[in-house]
Specification:
Layout: E1 11-12, H1 15-23, E2 28-34, H2 46-67, E3 77-82, H3 89-96, E4 116-121, E5 126-130, H4 136-151, E6 203-206, H5 208-216, E7 221-227, H6 234-247, E8 254-260, E9 276-278
Parallel strand pairs: 1-3, 2-3, 6-8, 7-8
Antiparallel strand pairs: 2-4, 4-5, 7-9
């Protein structure tokens, strides 16, 4: 684990620094995405382009040097990344929860209008996008207050959630549900947020907005499988999970549910390796 004081106060987020940033004992990463494209949008090659990028990065670094000074020193990791860095596009879409493009259409921007700032809680896998600016002393002071409030857990994280599954199609048999059945598409339309109903004997597919009401507020014991489409072992775990649901179908106090963590967030429990089962 990388010691916090062994890292520079502000890093450029790239392949070389990612390991150090995510291995650090500090839990929070403050990332500033800056506009490194030419002001008029025309392509620039060679030294002129690199010089413009260096200037933009230096300005972004200057902002974060002010933020990570004072009370925040040693409490948060700071990094900058240029918006045009295609190697980081997937990571930026994850942090800013940018929706994927429909098939056959151009990919939408990975971030909100630039400069864009987000605080990422690595330990709890939670994101805190900042909606203010970063120009001038007042905006920098406001950003410092925002980061301090995030560390004090005074700011609610931005949680992503799919639309609710449609009635009658939130259960499945076998491992096929992890390959495409998912929430299903019926004729009754999408159910209202938070409307998932747990029933013994079947596995209910939940989305992020339904989790707290359906699981945490329910007095029954609920065994939840947290999975992802890219998880090789999740299909096997899903089959076992469904077999258990059928085995305990006669017990009204035991329910089973699953949640796709690639498209849905929950504040608790903390999800580490996949697949994960929680009671």
């Amino acid at each position: 684990m990388a010691a916090a004081n062994a890292l520079p106060p502000v890093l450029a987020f790239d392949e070389a620094s990612q390991l150090s940033l995510f291995a650090s004992e500090l839990h929070h990463l403050l990332l500033l995405v800056y506009d490194d494209a030419p002001a008029d949008g025309t392509p620039v090659a060679g030294a002129a382009r690199e010089g413009g990028k260096a200037d933009a990065q230096a300005r972004a670094k200057g902002v974060l040097l002010q933020v990570c000074d004072g009370d925040l020193r040693g409490r948060v990791l700071c990094a900058t990344v240029g918006a045009s860095d295609r190697r980081q596009a997937q990571m930026l879409r994850f942090l800013f929860q940018a929706a994927p493009a429909p098939p056959g259409t151009p990919a939408p921007p990975a971030t909100p209008p630039l400069p864009a700032v987000v605080v990422f809680d690595k330990e709890r896998n939670l994101r805190y996008p900042y909606e203010g600016g970063v120009d001038g002393a007042e905006e920098t002071a406001a950003l410092i207050r925002f980061v301090s409030d995030v560390l004090a857990r005074k700011v609610a994280p931005q949680l992503q959630s799919e639309a609710g599954a449609r009635p009658g199609e939130d259960e499945h048999d076998g491992v096929g549900g992890f390959g495409g059945v998912g929430h299903g598409r019926g004729e009754e339309g999408e159910r209202a947020p938070g409307a998932a109903v747990l029933s013994p004997g079947r596995v209910t597919a939940l989305v992020g907005s339904e989790y707290a009401r359906a699981v945490l507020s329910d007095t029954r014991d609920t065994i939840v499988l947290f999975h992802s489409p890219w998880c090789v072992d999740c299909a096997t775990a899903g089959a076992v999970h469904e077999a258990l649901a059928r085995r305990y179908a006669a017990d009204p106090n035991v329910c089973f549910a699953r949640l796709d963590v690639s498209s849905n967030d929950v504040v608790a429990p903390r999800i580490g390796a996949l697949p994960s089962l929680y009671l």
